[in-house]
Amino acid sequence: MAAFELEPFMRSHQARVEELLRARADRLVPAGTPPRLAEAMRYSLLAGGKRLRPVMCIAFADAVAKASTLNEVAVDAACALEYVHTYSLVHDDLPCLDNDDLRRGKPTNHKVYGEPLALLAGDGLLTEAFTVLASGPEPVRGMLCAELARAAGAAGMVGGQVLDIAKDREATLAYLLRLHRMKTGALIRAACRMGVLAGGGDLAALVSAETYGDAVGLAFQIADDVLDVTSSAEQLGKPAGADAEAGRFTFPAVLGLEASRRMARELVAKAEEAVRPLEGDDGPLAALARYSVERTS
């Protein structure tokens, strides 16, 4: 059987996500956001990127939905995920953290708008995510807000960032796994679970999404670490070799390059197995898992 063709799927879904994000960003100024703040928020939100988290959310909603039309809850969940992801990138790039000059091939937010406005643009994106997600009558929106808040918060992405900058960071696999299950994996797991919840999936589907999201989140980070030592800044759209320069321990530094690639492949296989009950032997979710480690940026 031919493998699922991911490229046309990604093109159509990325275009849909871009359209949804633009429509919501257009509401900022009419809703009372100061124009300069709205401009800074839009600059990073609409700068492109893989849109992997919203695409995964939509793909899981599609996989479990009883209706063929994507519902408004799933659409809002997908957008809220990208708002939170973008905020995290804006803050990560600040001089007090990674001090990066490039993001998605463009100057980072603070290089264009200055540090104070970049900080506030990130704050605006984070809080606006919950405006988007909570604005509707459906009871499931409360559960979705809780999922997203847990993934983004102190026991998720923010906590993982703290582990990443710790002075006493350990050069062990156990530490790396804990760190990246929080910093990168938490939001990817949330994207998968939120898709199931928004699509009306059952407990078995939610368990599949959890297993898949955990595996893909780690595989995605391993691929990032590998690309950081094997690709150029032009390929990545951001500085290459930044982790090594900052003295951070990565999967290649701890395990070696080939062992890291092997671990990523094993995680992808685990993810594919987890979603087989939802889409059969191959489908968009399995293809997205493979893409997480086969990508070049």
From TrEMBL:
<dbReference type="InterPro" id="IPR033749">
    <property type="entry name" value="Polyprenyl_synt_CS"/>
</dbReference>
<dbReference type="GO" id="GO:0046872">
    <property type="term" value="F:metal ion binding"/>
</dbReference>
<keyword id="KW-0808">Transferase</keyword>
<dbReference type="Pfam" id="PF00348">
    <property type="entry name" value="polyprenyl_synt"/>
</dbReference>
<keyword id="KW-0479">Metal-binding</keyword>
<protein>
    <submittedName>
        <fullName>Polyprenyl synthetase family protein</fullName>
    </submittedName>
</protein>
<dbReference type="GO" id="GO:0005737">
    <property type="term" value="C:cytoplasm"/>
</dbReference>
<dbReference type="GO" id="GO:0004659">
    <property type="term" value="F:prenyltransferase activity"/>
</dbReference>
<comment type="similarity">
    <text>Belongs to the FPP/GGPP synthase family.</text>
</comment>
<keyword id="KW-0414">Isoprene biosynthesis</keyword>
<keyword id="KW-0460">Magnesium</keyword>
<dbReference type="InterPro" id="IPR000092">
    <property type="entry name" value="Polyprenyl_synt"/>
</dbReference>
<dbReference type="InterPro" id="IPR053378">
    <property type="entry name" value="Prenyl_diphosphate_synthase"/>
</dbReference>
<dbReference type="GO" id="GO:0016114">
    <property type="term" value="P:terpenoid biosynthetic process"/>
</dbReference>
<dbReference type="InterPro" id="IPR008949">
    <property type="entry name" value="Isoprenoid_synthase_dom_sf"/>
</dbReference>
